[in-house]
Design brief:
The protein is an alpha/beta fold and 397 residues long. The protein has a domain of 269 residues: Alpha-Beta Barrel (TIM Barrel), CATH 3.20.20. The chain is 36% helix and 24% strand. The protein is built from 13 helices and 14 strands. The strands form three sheets. Strands 3-2-1-4-13-14 form a six-stranded mixed β-sheet. Strands 5-6-7-8 form a four-stranded parallel β-sheet. It has a four-stranded parallel β-sheet with strand order 9-10-11-12. A hairpin with an 8-residue loop joins strand 1 and strand 2. Helix 4 runs parallel beside helix 5, helix 8 packs parallel to helix 9 and helix 12 crosses helix 13. The chain is globular. It starts with a strand and ends with a strand.
Length: 397
């Protein structure tokens, strides 16, 4: 087999937070890693680069179908204001334009080095685009419905959508959205559908407004839903993650070994974490920092998450709540906000941990012999191997 070789100042494998200085990767034409290690003589390397070589990224939370909304949303409106804008603008362009923008941004994601993605779909706009892409996606067919009497109709509709996804040739299954957009019955029914497929993604504790709604029944989100004459979830006096866990307990007996991704976690507390951890044994915790700043001007409690040894992943969310879908920009945001965290650890969140959630570590997530993670070059790295404001990523293979 013909092999190729590239080398750089820093090699991050995705498994070790410390980089290999002057590291190389040898790989086949199909991208399979043959070997990796320290260069004997950088002057003799045929392809030596300034910067870092890293495995392909795994974007663990994206709404590709909302790519047509780039630049249309006001920032820092809070969740209530964001929902109003979604309701106003979501269908403000043609299906052809929505699909074209999704295709464009999926190509950008691939070229920037994203090898796999957990993507949210509420319709079929992106199915064929994803089926044709070299980028692997697992699609979560997200459902909404605040009124209990609508539960069965919503489930019937998402089952039909899941059948269309299967016909398109992509991995997909239903999933619940969030506590405040769904009746308790629908949370449980949609969760049962997702868990049956082995994977579930859920927007969890994304905003203070969400927590105020669940704990006290008050706040901007409560006022928004009541003003539209929509039902709100029961006031529990507990964090919303506790409520979600209780709804899951209606599906089957614990423990839950299915892969569960809790997304955002901006208001995560030790109380909520401890409660969920009693039952949910296979959880990953996605952070989307630029989206959280865009909507709420807030960040998740990364120090709390690290103290509890949580498996953190990184996502971009959508272009309705972000200016870009750039995993390097997300990692830089985290690195600068939490300066005690090594860049190599953050990279592991954005590579290996995401691949682990998707059950793809046999191929993706790390530069390891026999895998095909994609190889990515990050330019404009600091002298100690950290990201800078000018850092950009580019796929090598």
């Amino acid at each position: 087999m013909k092999t190729n070789r590239t080398a750089a100042e820093f090699l991050y494998t995705g498994l070790d937070p410390e980089p290999v200085r002057n590291g190389y990767v040898e790989y086949g034409d199909d991208g399979t890693i043959v070997s990796a290690g320290i260069c004997d003589d950088i002057a003799a390397e045929p392809d030596y680069r300034k910067g870092a070589i890293v495995p392909g990224f795994v974007n663990s939370h994206c709404h590709l179908e909302l790519s047509h909304l780039k630049g249309k949303f006001r920032k820092k409106t809070g969740m209530s204001g964001f929902i109003d804008q979604i309701n106003e603008l979501r269908d403000s362009t043609s299906a052809e334009n929505r699909k074209a923008e999704a295709s464009k941004w999926l190509d950008i994601l691939w070229k920037q080095g994203v090898s796999a993605m957990a993507d949210i779909s509420n319709c079929d706009d992106t199915f064929l685009v994803k089926a044709a892409s070299p980028l692997y996606t697992r699609t979560f067919l997200e459902v909404f419905g605040t009124e209990p009497e609508d539960c069965q109709a919503v489930i019937d509709g998402v089952r039909k959508l899941a059948s269309e996804a299967a016909q398109a040739g992509i991995d997909a299954a239903p999933t619940p959205h969030a506590c405040y957009t769904m009746s308790p019955e629908l949370v449980t029914a949609a969760s049962a559908e997702g868990l049956a497929a082995g994977f579930l993604s859920y927007h969890s504790e994304e905003s203070r407004e969400e927590e105020d709604l669940m704990i006290y029944g008050t706040g901007a989100l409560a006022d928004n839903y009541k003003g539209r004459r929509l039902s709100t979830p029961p006031v529990t006096g507990k964090p919303s993650l506790c409520y979600f866990t209780d709804r899951l307990l209606q599906v089957h007996e614990p423990p839950f070994d299915e892969h569960i991704l809790l997304v955002h976690n901006v208001c995560l507390t030790q109380e909520a974490l401890d409660y969920a951890s009693q039952y949910l044994k296979n959880v990953w915790w996605a952070v989307c920092p630029l989206s959280n700043i865009f909507i709420h001007d807030a960040l998740p409690p990364v120090d709390l998450m690290r103290r509890n040894h949580l498996r953190i992943t990184v996502g971009t969310d959508s272009l309705s709540s972000n200016d870009t879908l750039d995993m390097t920009a997300e990692m830089y945001c985290l690195q600068e906000a939490f300066k005690n965290v090594p860049f190599g650890e953050i990279l592991g969140w954005a590579t290996y941990n995401g691949a682990s959630f998707l059950s793809k570590t046999d191929l993706l997530g790390s530069i390891s012999e026999g895998k095909k993670p994609g190889i990515v070059w990050i330019r404009n790295i600091s002298q100690d191997g950290r990201l800078t404001k000018e850092s950009v990523s580019e796929r090598i293979i």
